[in-house]
Amino acid sequence: MGDVMSKEELFVEKLDELVEVYGEENQEGMKAALKACQDEFGYVAASHQEQIAEKFAVNTPIVKVLMKFIPNIKEIAVEKEVVCCSGPRCKQNGSFEVIKTMREELGLNFGEVSKDGKIRLSSQNCFKNCKNGPNVVVNGKMYEHMDKKKVKELVKEIHK
Question: How many angstroms separate the CA atoms of 58 and 3, rounded?
Answer without folding.
Answer: 32
